[in-house]
Amino acid sequence: MSTLAIYRENAELLETTRDVDAIATKLHGIGVLFERWEASRELDDGASQDEIIDAYRGSVDRLMKQYNFKSADVISLTAAHPDKEALRKKFLDEHTHSDFEVRFFVDGQGLFFIHAGDKVHAILCQRGDLLSVPANTPHWFDLGSEPLLKCIRLFTTPEGWVANYTGSAIAKAFPTLDNFMASA
User: Fold this and answer.
1) What is the pTM of this model?
2) What is the SS3 assignment for the chain?
């Protein structure tokens, strides 16, 4: 179940909620878009990138028009991926992007951390969740030790995902996806 946990920068937990409307409202307050999407049809595990995007075409097209996104693709990672540890490490340090970071979870889950002001918002995203982190917003992401995720990504630039690491060690003070799930 989707969860928002809000912490102080020292990792002291302030509040949690699983209410989708409350999550969307609280994230909107820091400029982050959170929505729930439903597919227009059933998708099987072997669905192609085009089939996946077409199943969410109305929502994808709405965001592409609203934010002038130029492209959409699908990323899929499982525990069997040979580079899962390297990929996980790449996302675990606080970074920003000059572009939005938009992820819609077609399947699986991941844990986003957004560092806004003197607070850190941890969002457990699962199937059906869309999260859009604005450009230049410090954040990090954990896909877990045994990743399972399939996401639609939207981009305004042809470069796609390019991280600008902040050099902060703040991410190390917060739970990993595995620890977050174990305490939920």
Assistant:
1) 0.93
2) CCEEEEEECCCCEEEEECCHHHHHHHHHCCCCEEEECCCCCCCCCCCCHHHHHHHCHHHHHHHHHHHCCCEEEEEEECCCCCCHHHHHHHHHCCEECCCCEEEEEEEEEEEEEEEECCEEEEEEEECCEEEEECCCCCEEEECCCCCCEEEEEEECCCCCCCCEECCCCHHHHCCCHHHHHHHC
